[in-house]
Amino acid sequence: MNNAFRVSASPYSPFPYPHSQVTLSTTIPFKQRQSLVLTLSFDLTPFPFNSSTATKRRRATFICAAAANQEAEESFKKTVEIDRLIDLLREANSHQLQKLVVENILAFNPTFWIRLAARTDTCKSEDDKKDYEELATTIMTVVDLVVHKTNEKIESSTDVLKAVLKPVVVVDDVGEIPWPPRDPQALTSMEKEISQREQEGQLDEGFLAEVNAQLRQAKEDGDKPGLEAMLQKVLQLYASTVLSKRTYAMKGNEVLKDEQLLETIIQAPEEEWNNILINGLTIGAGDISPEELYAVLKKRTERTLIRTEGGSYQQRILTEYLKGIETRAEEIVKVLQGKPQ
């Protein structure tokens, strides 16, 4: 017995064109030798072409492409603007940088930091990479300072200097300022104050000019040796702090001992330089020849000249500090060689 089950096109079929059909018959055997013939009808008539629909699709595609292009163009413009700001910040001195940060405070959003990180990663030299890292740290510090100082009075250079000197300014019974200070913690407190103020970007050209003016006046007066020594110490601590911000003592996994010796001297108080030089130079008990030390000093001075504004107080103070180390090294070498100074 054969039973047939036929499926064919109907007015409600998604293929409502019965004039073009293919009939497929398949016999499926059952255990009881019954068969079921399925006749399937498929409509192969192509979907009617609608020019209006195609036009709409093309228009939609064009609009999407235009929107994508516009978005890419806007993104490119933003990147160019951020790059321009980064370049301005890199070229600015400390005072100009603070001003730029304040004027563009709303520009330091996640997009800015992502772009700055991308430029840092693509640096070809370690020096440039460190420049970007220092720039990022400085910007974050200034932004944080602006946020916390919004409702506070901005301190003048004189105010900053007074705050730096406060731990060590103790007038004795005869009205003199003793130096070195009697309290051993006073110098440590002053050093911490300088480090903190430097991180906040407050030790700018205005501050350095104020210190130099006060120092010049103290030298001219000649009756305040304690104040003169104190101001000189401020400049030494400033130079040590700034020069210690980056290290050149590591090259990959290799320790460069000549650079390491120089950085040890830079970070140490002036009173300890003699012992460090004696223990570090080959003419004493060390491994570094005087010529090697002079070479890295020259290289560090050149780097400082490149990365500071020509004629600025900062440039002069940093290079004089390095020159002071070189002079002290030459004196130690002469003493150890038994030559008259």
Describe this structure in words.
The protein is built from twelve helices and five strands. It is mainly α and 341 residues long. The strands form two sheets. It has a three-stranded mixed sheet with strand order 1-3-2, with no helix packed on it. A two-stranded antiparallel sheet has the order 4-5. Strand 4 and strand 5 (254-255) form a beta hairpin. Helix 2 (94-103) crosses helix 4 (126-148), helix 7 runs antiparallel to helix 8 and helix 8 (225-243) packs across helix 12. The longest helix has 41 residues, at 51-91. The radius of gyration is 39 Å and the shape is flat. It starts with a strand and ends with a helix.
Secondary structure blueprint with pairings:
Elements: E1 2-7, E2 21-29, E3 35-43, H1 51-91, H2 94-103, H3 110-121, H4 126-148, H5 157-165, H6 184-199, H7 205-221, H8 225-243, E4 250-251, E5 254-255, H9 257-267, H10 273-280, H11 290-307, H12 313-337
Parallel strand pairs: 1-3
Antiparallel strand pairs: 2-3, 4-5
Q: What number is the mean pLDDT?
A: 80
End-to-end distance: 129 Å
Structural class determined from secondary elements: mainly alpha
Strand content: 5-15%
Helical fraction equals 55-70%
Give Rg in angstroms.
Answer: 39 Å
Question: Tags for this entry?
Answer:
341 residues, two-stranded antiparallel sheet, 5 strands
